[in-house]
Structures are given as C-alpha cells and as structure tokens.
Amino acid sequence: MTTPNPPRQLIVNADDFGLSPGVNQGIIQAHAHGIVTSASLMVRGPAAAAAADYARAHPQFSVGLHLDLCEWTFADGQWRPVYEVVPPDNPAAVAAEIARQFESCRRLLGREPTHLDSHQHVHRTEPAHSIAVREARRLGIVLRGFDAQVRYCGDFYGQSHHGYPYPEGISVPALLDLLRRLPPGITELGCHPGLGADLDSIYRDERAVECATLCDPRIRAALSEEGIVLCSFVGRRGAAY
C-alpha cells in the first residue's frame, strides 16, 4: 500500500510588521482581506506598538520576532550598509541586542513570539545564527529556513538579488504559479505588503503591489482548487535543527 502525500499547508508570513503605519496598514489589509496568516514584528520600528495592539486583539494571527541588526542596499555595483544597530561581527554586541529585542517583543505582545526570523536574513550568518538557533530551541519555536518541518519560500519578491525591479515576481500570475508548484508538507511563504509612501526604503513601491496580489480573489480561489490549507505558527512547535 502506498502512503499518501501529506497535505499542502501554507503559512503566509508578512515581514516588517511595525516598520511604519503604512506597512502595518498593508499587512492588516492582507490579513483581513487576503491570505496573510502571520507576521514578524520589527520591534525597533516606530509603529511597533500599534502592530502589537493588533496582534493582541487577534490572537489567531501569529506574530513572531523579526530580528533587526542591520540593513544593506545595492548601489554603484556593490552592497553598502544603510545602518548597523550593532556591529554584525561582534558576538557579544549581537547577543545583547538580540536579547534586548526578544524582551521588547515580549513586552509589546504580552507573550513569547510564535516564530523567529530576521531582516535581510541576518540570522543565516554568524554570530547571529548560533544565537538565533539557541533561542529558537529554548522557546520551541520555528526558526526560518532551519526547521525540519517548515520549508521557507522567498520567491514572492519584487526585486532581483541586486535590488533591481522585478515586478513579475509579485504579480498574480507569479503567485498562482508558485501555489501550483507548492510541494507537500508545510511551507512558509515570505511577503512584504504595505500601503502608502511613509517609508524611505529600497523596497517601498513594491509593497502596495504585493498587498493587491495577496488580496486578489483569484489567489483564494486557487488555494481552494489546489487543496492548499492556510495555517499559521500558532501552536506550532519548532522541529530539531
């Protein structure tokens, strides 16, 4: 007897919750009227408190911690730092800042984060990686890209690896194709919806396009047709890394 494939489940996680009022508005709209089921809180953002207010009022909307240690931009043919919260190669400084952001997250949400990831994937490199793994294990939560049960997909993005516009990547046809190719098991799909122009960022105008795509009724219809079940990180334990 053959074993049936596990069902396809999809967590749609919006990064940068709290970065600005417009980003909050886009994430909330994509949750209320689209397919977003989860978000990652940027506790240093000026709109973090408002984001946390929404999270507390909607407990089934899973909210994790989006570690924010630095940001880079591609200019003149190379990547250049926009800011560094702490030197990213200083283990003691990184550990202290991660601990501070965890504490801020707990204070804002009134609970532990449901999952862990980071701005521009800084948790993939040392020393942040080892610290993130340790904290995720301690809390029993999913660490993006390093969990044995939750596959991460970052293909829904409106720029190339060098920061050039790639609007095709966040179009309705692109997302429909991504859903059709979704493998069995649990997938986290990263996204960055937002509304308005209150953000000075290399990824600003694309956010409204993402929001429109995530709320397009054709996407919800495709989920039903493909038998894909939306879910979140609420109640989900992290698997061994």
Describe the overall structure.
It contains 7 helices and 10 strands. By secondary structure, it is of the alpha/beta class. It has a single domain, classed as Glycoside hydrolase/deacetylase (TIM Barrel, Alpha-Beta Barrel). Strands 1, 2, 3, 6, 7, 8, 9 and 10 form an 8-stranded parallel beta sheet that branches. Strand 6, helix 4 and strand 7 form a beta-alpha-beta unit. The mean pLDDT is about 95.
CATH superfamily: Glycoside hydrolase/deacetylase
Through-space gap between termini: 31 Å
Number of strands: 10
The secondary-structure element order is EHEHEEEHEHEEHEHHE
Question: Helical proportion?
Answer: 25-40%
Number of helices: 7
**What's the number of domains?**
1
Instruction: Kindly estimate the percentage of residues that lie in beta strands according to DSSP.
Output: 15-25%
Helices and strands: which structural class? alpha/beta
In the CATH scheme, the class would be Alpha Beta
User: What is the CATH topology descriptor?
Assistant: TIM Barrel
Average pLDDT over all residues: 94
Named at the architecture level, the CATH assignment is Alpha-Beta Barrel
Radius of gyration: 17 Å
Low-confidence stretches: none
Coarse shape: globular
Map the helices and strands.
Elements: E1 8-17, H1 21-32, E2 38-41, H2 48-57, E3 62-67, E4 70-75, E5 78-84, H3 91-109, E6 115-118, H4 128-139, E7 142-143, E8 150-153, H5 172-180, E9 185-191, H6 205-214, H7 217-226, E10 229-231
Parallel strand pairs: 1-2, 1-9, 1-10, 2-3, 3-6, 6-7, 8-9
Antiparallel strand pairs: 4-5
Helix pairs in contact: 1-6, 5-7
